[in-house]
Amino acid sequence: MKKTVHFSKGFLASVIISSLIIISGIVITCVKGLNFGLDFKPGLVEEIKIAPAEISVTYSGSANVSVQTSSSAVSFVVSGIGAEKTTHEFLFIDYPTVADMVAAFNKVSDVKASVLNDGTKNSEGLLLDTQSSSLLSKTPLYLHLVDKSSVVITTDEMRELLSELGDVRVKEIGTKTDDNFQIRVGDDGTDPEVSKNIQSSIAKVMNDKFGENNWVVVKTDFIGSNFSGKLVRSSIFLVVASLLLIWIYVTIRFKWDFAFASVLGIVHDALIIITFLAWTQMEIDSLTIAAILTIVGYSINNTVVVLDRVRENSKLITVSSIKEMLDISQTEMLTRFVITTVTTMLAALSLLIFTSGSMRNFAACLMVGLASGFYSSIFIAGSLISVTRKKNFASLGNKDQNKN
What we know:
three-stranded antiparallel beta sheet; alpha+beta; 9 helices
């Protein structure tokens, strides 16, 4: 017969430890607050690259010629009155250097291109400034290229550079040599032209540091106060609604106290993740909410499996107390818990190692939540059930109704 693990001996200690951890999270939250991302507060987010202009392009014809860039090519789209709509695509693999690309551009009618720096550089990665018009004209349009041979500026240096703008957060995107940064600037609601003014302020700082044509804006987003507030309310509603529906489901399937224990275990896991976010000051965004909801579903699955086994065993075996029944049932489910938790953790670990940014934060929250879910399904839910079922163990269906 398989040896029974006496998890019930750790019920009291687990409740004390969890309480202390959660209390510490509450204290840190009250003192330092949580690091809410721009998804949950108004402001502007701008992604920039430190990328000098490498090619200058002008157009003297009567048609409309727009320039588009992708990960594989630069394209010229010709359209307009009196012009047949055509697309000239210049693949990086066909024109491997900047000089090769310029020579190809000059073959397009009325287009004049020139090399600004080193024509021997690899052409792959040429990009446009999204704040500039993509239409060619007699005014030069610049194609930029990141110099991956060296790091132009570090994240800390960029953060220091932009500190004069106030509530600024800088995050590195990609590798260090990509010189690609995400800049987030908060909005206090006092400036009606905040988006325009923030972009102008960032541009001034960047121009003073790197020069007007040595950096580009990859993309810009602005989130207003109405949208950010609505997103906060929607996130809270989603979590509360999930807990309520789970409570109803478990109450119907089992008993009220089993349902309460299940929901308490889920709330415990959510609070542990929030405590982790408070400790680390990790940025909270929409993916963080997705991680919490994922753990809610994962944790309730483990708890329901234990409860189902408790109910089945109560009809098959005779024990003297609910704690003994919980020990037997949890021991029988232990191997399943370990296998499912570890395999899911391996998937989350791969995301943690090989991704960055919000996805990496999502993976970190999953790792913490998976560990907490494993722990709470056994100890937290078990602790509450052992208390509520202490006097009415027979109503569960135990064969020996005279014992307890």
